[in-house]
Amino acid sequence: RQMLVSDPVAIFYLTGKWLHPGERFLGLYLNADTQPQLFLNDLFRFDEEIGAVKVPITDTTDLITLLKAYVDHSAPLGVDKELAAKFLIPMYDAKIASGIRNTSLAIDNARALKDAQEIEWMRESSRINDRAMEQFKACIREGVTEKEEASTGGWLDVCAPFTRELLYYMIPTLNLRVLTVLFYLKRLMTC
User: Fold this and answer.
1) Rounded alpha-carbon distances, angstroms, from residue 47 to 17, 44, 89, 149
2) 20, 13 in Cβ contact below 8 A?
3) Distance from the Cα of residue 92 to its chain's centroid
4) What DSSP character marks residue 170?
5) pTM score, whole prediction
6) What residues form DSSP beta bridges with 79?
7) Which residues neighbour 124 within 8 Å (Cβ) at sequence distance 6 or greater?
8) What letter would DSSP give residue 40?
9) DSSP result, 101-161
10) What angle do CA 171, 174, 180 make, to 5 degrees?
11) How far is CA 132 from CA 5, 124, 139, 155, 157, in A?
């Protein structure tokens, strides 16, 4: 019914936006009854639309009080395995939900499902990667270590043109993916 996703990779999967907050809080709150909410530190603001309401926070925001305004207290809250203890323990102590459960499998299972377009994107990404590796082979020379080659930047020049092309195939569709996660979340919460 509700889940707080804190893993930057899972948030990227769900929104198409790569964010890595370091030690700061980042959370995508999913609830079957509301639009997704992205709790995001002001240090990482961005303008583009990602299909979630952006909830600004700062380093001094009382995170527990803020989350209490969004979380359904009468239902368990699913969290992923990446939620840091410094955020999880205060949530647990404050009883922001009727319980807290590890529901990482909801994300993991959703990510495992691929529709026809995602399968084609994976194939195209693989073809692009194969082309990049063919060109990269030209950078490899006998007697030269990876570290030495990296210091010349030659492999970066070879791979850089492929990066933008690959990123195109990694952009997800939020609505379908959120619905899939919520489907698995419902199954996990009823077990």
Assistant:
1) 11, 10, 32, 38
2) no
3) 23
4) T
5) 0.71
6) 4, 102
7) 169
8) E
9) EE-HHHHHHHHH---HHHHHHHHHHHHHHHHHHHHHHTT--TT--HHHHHHHTHHHHHHHH
10) 115
11) 33, 12, 11, 10, 11
Q: For residue 135, what pLDDT band results from cuts at 50, 70 and 90?
A: confident
Q: How far apart are CA 160 and CA 132, in angstroms?
A: 9
* Cα gap 84→38, rounded to integer Å: 17
Average pLDDT over residues 29-58: 93
Locate 165 and state its tokens: 């092309």
Residue 32, SS3 per DSSP: coil
3-state DSSP assignment of residue 58: coil
Q: Which pair of tokens denotes residue 16?
A: 């198409």
Return all residues near 131 (Cβ < 8 A) that are at least 6 apart: 162
